[in-house]
């Protein structure tokens, strides 16, 4: 069987097998759409024991209902979603795939420890712990 997620039949929401919505931080879709419209490569860098489920949710999640832009469609192929490997290793893979210096990467994360690891590599990090990804993070 496939991942336990589906598009809600009456909306653009993604729901799990119990019908509960899978939600991003409220302003995250607007932030991701803004970055995407500026041509900024969007790359997922995630540690997950169910990477295929993460990819399935990304493919279903509509960032912009007016255009139909889906999160999965906006993601760059350099995305790294794997079981519990180091975020540092993920960032190294992404940096190599994009061919840019670490200083040109921007990481949004909700763990201060991860942001500290990224900053130690030269990655620009925005910790969204507690607040979530919001438009103020772009300022």
How would you describe this protein?
By secondary structure, the protein is of the alpha/beta class. It has helices spanning 28-37, 51-60, 71-74, 87-98, 112-121; strands spanning 5-7, 14-16, 21-22, 45-47, 62-64, 69-70, 80-82, 106-109, 124-127. A 3-stranded antiparallel β-sheet has the order 1-2-3, with helices on one face. Strands 4-7 form a two-stranded parallel ribbon. Strands 5-6 form a two-stranded antiparallel sheet. Strand 2 and strand 3 form a beta hairpin. The longest helix has 12 residues, at 87-98. The chain starts with a strand and ends in a 12-residue tail after the last strand. The mean pLDDT is 88.
Task: Give a short synopsis of this structure.
With 139 residues, the protein is α/β, with parallel strands linked by helices. It has helices at 28-37, 51-60, 71-74, 87-98, 112-121; strands spanning 5-7, 14-16, 21-22, 45-47, 62-64, 69-70, 80-82, 106-109, 124-127. 33% of the residues lie in helices and 19% in strands.
* Uncertain parts: none
**Order of SSEs:** EEEHEHEEHEHEHE
Task: Report how far the terminal alpha carbons are from each other.
Answer: 43 Å
Order of strands, main sheet, comes to 1-2-3
Sheet with the most strands? 3 strands, antiparallel
Number of helical elements: 5
Q: Which structural class fits the helix and strand makeup?
A: alpha/beta
The strand count comes to 9
Mean model confidence by pLDDT: 88
Outline type: globular
Report the helical percentage.
Answer: 25-40%
Radius of gyration: 15 Å
Portion in strands = 15-25%
């Amino acid at each position: 069987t496939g991942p336990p997620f589906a598009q809600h039949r009456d909306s653009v929401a993604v729901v799990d097998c119990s019908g509960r919505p899978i939600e991003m931080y409220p302003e995250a879709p607007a932030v991701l759409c803004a970055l995407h419209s500026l041509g900024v490569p969007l790359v997922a860098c995630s540690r997950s024991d169910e990477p295929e489920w993460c990819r399935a949710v990304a493919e279903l999640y509509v960032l912009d209902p007016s255009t139909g832009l889906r999160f999965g469609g906006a993601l760059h192929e350099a995305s790294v979603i794997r079981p519990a490997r180091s975020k540092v290793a993920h960032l190294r893979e992404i940096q190599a795939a994009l061919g840019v210096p670490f200083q040109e990467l921007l990481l949004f994360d909700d763990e201060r420890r991860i942001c500290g690891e990224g900053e130690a590599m030269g990655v620009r990090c925005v910790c969204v712990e507690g607040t979530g990804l919001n438009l103020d993070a772009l300022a």
